């Protein structure tokens, strides 16, 4: 059974929806594991949305660990508050010994020390080898480069931002319909909106299916390398067709 540590700032409704989706799949047995703890870099009373998130976590009887980064960020004389903060985080989570930590709307950059200690995975809204940066920056870069495909990937968290080994990914074409019309018109605004719509629809399925694959042993993370069920290193698990099918189901 996969022991999962769940990291989330809990800043919006999407954070609650993602936790709900994962928890439901665990209850159904689709994800063979458990969420051993939830960690948040906010504390009770900091924001309404995170308070709602904490209420949800407690409703699931999942151990909740809160430590506000603000106290560390504002402390005087610290040149790298993230290191100090993450060391305190580790003290609070190490007894759980998670097999995997999922950054699920966690709005802090993880220090090198912490990401090397645990297998941590994160979503990046770009194809493997694609642009880095925020989702807005990714989409604009794809448009400016005239890219044929867009997508999203789950990757191992490393000190190199958005460039860790690919765990899983999904791709979709952006030159065929319904995108082709806006390429012809050179309507970058509509292209941006449409690409984001299609990418966003794939985020939750990709995260959930990645957890399913890891919990079943279809893929495994060994020494920061992704291997298949035969123990062979792979450059990411292609979930494009399965994610597309899930997206089609949701639109019916």
Structure commentary:
This protein has 252 residues and is α/β, with parallel strands linked by helices. The protein has 2 domains: 1-118, Rossmann fold; 126-150 and 159-252, no CATH class. Helix content is 43%, strand content 21%. The chain is built from 9 helices and 10 strands. The strands form 2 sheets. It has an 8-stranded mixed beta sheet with strand order 3-2-1-4-5-6-7-10, with helices on both faces. The protein has a two-stranded antiparallel sheet with strand order 8-9. Helix 6 packs across helix 8. The model has no long low-confidence stretch (mean pLDDT 94).
Q: Average pLDDT value?
A: 94
Shape: globular
Kindly provide the radius of gyration, computed on alpha-carbon positions and rounded to a whole number of angstroms: 19 Å
Q: Look at the helices and sheets and give the structural class.
A: alpha/beta
What letter string, H or E per element, gives the SSE order? Answer: EHEHEHHEHEHEEHHEEEH
